Amino acid sequence: MSQTRVDAFLEVVRNPEGAPLDGATDQDDAIRSLLVHLIYADGDLADEELLLGLRMLPLLSPREAAARLRAIRGSPVDIEELLAAVPDPEDRRKLIQFAQHVATIDGEYADAEHEAIVALRREVYRAPS
């Protein structure tokens, strides 16, 4: 089975010493919106979260990437848009794994992160395949 785009995002989160995200697809903005929503959910941007965000935007300079992350931060994650961008049921389940890894990358699991993951899980399992 070939690697999907969700797999690529998940690999970056699971392997902090590995390569940054490579290339770009139509799914990227939707998946990044989930990432940004989670790294800012607790109101604090930890170093680990910032470094992860930079690894998800490797084609930009660190300053440009940080500005892009802040710009995305202003928009709440649109779960319907996310699920439309990621139509495969297995990839949708992997989005939950991705969200769990992102939420705990700083060693903490805030209530807002938990609530975001519960909402995502609810929509993933409710959405028609």
Q: Would you mind describing this structure in some detail?
A:
Helix 1 (5-14) runs parallel beside helix 6 (89-104), helix 2 (28-39) packs across helix 4 (62-73) and helix 2 runs parallel beside helix 6 (89-104). The protein is globular and about 40 Å long. The chain is an all-alpha fold. The chain contains seven helices and no strands. The protein has one domain (5-15, 23-126): TerB-like, CATH 1.10.3680. Helix content is 64%, strand content 0%. It has helices spanning 5-14, 28-39, 47-55, 62-73, 79-85, 89-104, 111-126.
N- to C-terminal distance: 19 Å
Helix share bin: 55-70%
Residue runs with pLDDT of under 50 for 5 or more positions? none
Beta-sheet strand percentage? under 5%
Number of strands: 0
Helix segment tally:
7
Q: Which CATH architecture? A: Orthogonal Bundle
Order of helices and strands: HHHHHHH
Write the layout of secondary structure elements.
Elements: H1 5-14, H2 28-39, H3 47-55, H4 62-73, H5 79-85, H6 89-104, H7 111-126
Helix pairs in contact: 1-6, 2-4, 2-5, 2-6, 6-7
